[in-house]
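It is worth pausing here to work through a concrete case rather than discussing structure prediction in the abstract. The textbook approach is simple: state the sequence, then state the predicted structure, then interpret. We follow exactly that order.
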Amino acid sequence: MHAILTALAEQHAELVALLDGLDETDWQRPTRCEGWNVADVVLHLAQTDELALASAQRRYDEGLAALAGGAVPQGNVDDGAAAMVARERGQTSAAVLERWRSGAAMLNETLAASDPHERVRWVAGELSTHTLATTRLAECWIHTGDVADAVGVVQPATDRLEAIARLAWRTLPYAFARAGRRLTGPVSFDLRAPSGARWHFAPDDPPATTIEGDGGELCLVAARRITPAETSLRGTGPDAGAVLELVRTYA
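Step two, the predicted structure:
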């Protein structure tokens, strides 16, 4: 748990450094999240960190109701997130930044005091608090990239992406089930880290499908920020194309 929380704190610090350098014009710039500007992206992060905090404190339903304004969530996860942002859109950039920073700090403190194996509620069901922390790392990294792209800054690639790539590998059964499909057999990832190290995620049984290539690119594909065709990723086995199509790091 310590390693993932250290990575999460580092990702928070990267986003803080980026946001601290923005002016009001920058906060209004459109992002690659359709219909959202920079302020909307940070508001969404604040809201979902607050929901994760509620989950870690075993008050998920209460937290969701507060963010939804008492309304019954409609549509899919993306629709719900869009509705929550629309409900609170229009706050000052200073208020949005302070809300996210304070909420992120409180979430880190709560997760640090939690049993990493404890099961808690989250969007798609139950998961461990360790996995919850990893999903927060993935989402913060994704949206840091959205902000960086909007303001013309190159997001650095670091080896803390390893936890995000592992999350994408571990949740492949969920990604396939969400699409109404089934894996033919086990899948392994053999990836190259930004540092040049090797990330090898392998099942207990011999893999039927293997995905190879750049680990940062795999994370971007799983985040739906680039397509597999834009990468050097390659796969062998019966599910290679489907894995690259369906892999994801969020609900």
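Step three, interpretation. The two ends are 21 Å apart (CA to CA). The chain has two domains: 2-150, 161-246.
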